[in-house]
Structure formats: C-alpha cells, structure tokens
Amino acid sequence: MYCIELAIKLSPMPLIVQRKEHGDAKRIYSEVVDSIKKGNQRLLELTCEKVEDKRITVLVSEISAVQIYEKTSSSSSKRPGFSLQD
User: 10-54 pLDDT, tens per residue?
Assistant: First the structure.
C-alpha cells in the first residue's frame, strides 16, 4: 500500500490517501505537485482506495508539502518524510 500525504498550512495533522499500486500513487503525487505549481486550480479532490467513499477536498493554496511513501507492516521500516536519524 502506498500513501500520499499532504501537509496543510497551520494544521498539525496531515491528510493521507492510499493507493494499492505504486504507479497510481505516483500519478496522484504528480497531480498534486502540478496543481501547486500551476496555481490555477483552486480545489483538489482526492479519493482513497483503502477506505471506500473516503474523499477529501483541499484548497491547493493551503498545501505546504506532499510526500509519497510505502506503508509496510514491518516495524523496522523508516518513518516517512525526512529525518536526520536512520
């Protein structure tokens, strides 16, 4: 399972949607990045494959970061994001 995580300005909790296939997750990630770059799209709606009928709509101008990572059941896996610890 792959997670696409959006960090929203002034919000401590990220918004996360999931995709089963890496290609689908990369497509969503690229869509979010393109929306931020272009800035002409006001709202972005995303759906989640894991939780049926889960939908989020976010103001593109409020997205401060986006990341993609693989969600694994292993507890020894690295945390998503960037850190100084391995």
Answer: 999 999 888 999 999 999 999 999 999 988 779 999 988 877 788
Q: Which of these, 28, 38, 10, 11, lies nearest to 69 by C-alpha position?
A: 28
Q: What pLDDT score was predicted for residue 6?
A: 93
Total domains in the chain come to: 1
Q: Is 82 inside any structural domain?
A: no
CA–CA distance, 5 with 69 (Å, rounded to integer): 8
Helix (H) or strand (E) holding 33: helix 22-38
CA 74 from centre of chain: 21
pTM (two decimals): 0.78
Q: Does 65 map to a domain?
A: yes
Find the domain containing 58 and state its range: 2-70
